[in-house]
Amino acid sequence: MSPINKAIRNEAKVDTQETYSSADFNITPIQPIVRMPERLAHPNVEDLGKHDEYSKERKHPVFFVDLPSKCLSMTIGWLDPEQSSNMHRHTYETILFVLEGEGYSTIQGQKVPWKVGDAVYIPVWAWHRHTSTGTGRARYLACENAPLLQNLGGIALREEAQTKSDKEECQ
């Protein structure tokens, strides 16, 4: 057995406690513990189909990356030429990475242009929408800390702009 495999085997400690509270301070592990999930990959994310209800509410296709992360989520969004997402805001941070196309995001009234290879930061609770301006589909990868907030007590909230004045105020 190689030294690396031997070290992995010797350090493979099983921690059956899912969460800890302040009363458990004396029993928290003194070193990191590996918790191997059943799945480590989600093949063909876009080929398996969009989440229809979620996509319909947002008025553009959205594909969830279904992996067991407790802190981060990833989705892939598509926008057709001249299409915009709904104006919305949420209590979690988002970083978009543009995979295809070009356009801009309106973030708290500020227009932020983007193209393939660009990354865009969406601050917590900032009103925003994404708009495709190219001749082809725009695709972006959205990375968010929503699962972390959900696991801290269901505080990953999202709000859609409801009225025309809400939408105008956000632009």
Question: Topology, please?
Answer:
Layout lengths: L2 H9 L40 H7 L3 E3 L8 E7 L8 E3 L3 E7 L1 E6 L2 E6 L3 E4 L5 E5 L5 E7 L1 H6 L6 E3 L3 H7 L1
Antiparallel strand pairs: 1-2, 2-9, 3-10, 4-7, 4-9, 5-6, 5-8
Summary of the model, kept short:
This protein has 171 residues and is an alpha+beta fold.
Low-confidence stretches: 5-14
- Figure out the total of helices: 4
Instruction: Please indicate the percent range of residues in DSSP E strands (runs of 2 or more).
Output: 25-35%
* CATH domain topology: Jelly Rolls
Helical amount among residues, as a percent range?
10-25%
Label the overall shape. Answer: globular
Count of the separate structural domains: 1
Structural class: alpha+beta
How would a textbook summarize the main sheet?
5 strands, antiparallel
- Second-tier CATH architecture: Sandwich
* N-to-C span: 62 Å
pLDDT averaged residue by residue: 86
Question: Could you tell me the number of beta strands?
Answer: 10
Counting copies of identical and different chains, the oligomeric state is single chain
Q: Spell out the CATH superfamily.
A: Jelly Rolls
Q: Give the helices and strands as they follow along the chain.
A: HHEEEEEEEEEHEH
Query: Major sheet: order of its strands?
Result: 1-2-9-4-7
Broad CATH class: Mainly Beta
